[in-house]
Amino acid sequence: MSECPRSHKHGATHTCYNTHGCRCQGCVAAKSRNRLEYDWETRRRHGRNVWVPAAGTVRRLRGLAVMGWPIRVIAADGNLFARSLGKVREGSRARVHMTTYAAVRSFYETHSMTFNNTREGHITRTKAVAAGWLPPLEWDNPDTDRRRAA
């Protein structure tokens, strides 16, 4: 850890934290004050791994369940783990990885308007309706809607 020059306003901005590697309380606090909570678009543009809010993914997974698409099928299509995807659908995850978001969104775009008429699809649909989950057409945009569509 190097000492920050006075011209960098030690502890007042996040320059000392980023540029000089200073980890004193003042610089760490300045860094956390200046960090955007959902700055994932910038991180994605720079090719970094990012975590995004899970609300849109949860709504998509639940909408697909109402249409009869089980987690196992969605996970296999997106090369994801079914157990972790099931936890996302339950709502126990606040954020999901960008690759999970993209895979679920892709599956949703292609399958959200078709029923899965298999036996497994019927079971999934029955459980989803009993849980009170909304079908895909109830959301104008699953990522940004704050309430049900009218």
Characterize the structure shown:
The chain has 150 residues and is mainly α. It has two domains: 6-35, no CATH class; 51-138, no CATH class. The chain is built from eight helices and two strands. The longest helix is centred in the last third of the chain and has 14 residues, at 98-111. The radius of gyration is 21 Å and the shape is elongated. The model has no long low-confidence stretch (mean pLDDT 82).
Number of strands: 2
Using the alpha-carbon principal axes, give the shape.
elongated
The total number of structural domains is: 2
Tell me the number of helical segments per DSSP (H or I, 4 or more residues long).
8
The SSE string, one letter per element, is HHHEHHHEHH
Strand content: under 5%
Supply the key terms:
150 residues; mainly alpha; 2 domains
List the helices and strands and how they pair.
Elements: H1 15-20, H2 25-34, H3 40-45, E1 51-53, H4 55-66, H5 71-78, H6 82-90, E2 95-97, H7 98-111, H8 119-131
Antiparallel strand pairs: 1-2
Helix pairs in contact: 4-7, 4-8, 5-6, 5-7
Report a brief summary of the structure.
The protein is mainly alpha-helical. The chain has eight helices and two strands. The protein has helices at residues 15-20, 25-34, 40-45, 55-66, 71-78, 82-90, 98-111, 119-131, and strands at 51-53, 95-97.
